[in-house]
Amino acid sequence: MRIKDKSQQAHYYRGENGARYVTGASRRAPQGENAEDYYQGRAEEGSVNIVKDAIDQYVAIVETLKKRSSLAIQDDKQAFLRSKRNGGKLLLIDQADYSTQHIFFDDSATDDDNSQVDVVDVISG
Question: Which of the ends of the chain has fewer CB neighbours closer than 10 A, N or C?
Answer without folding.
Answer: C
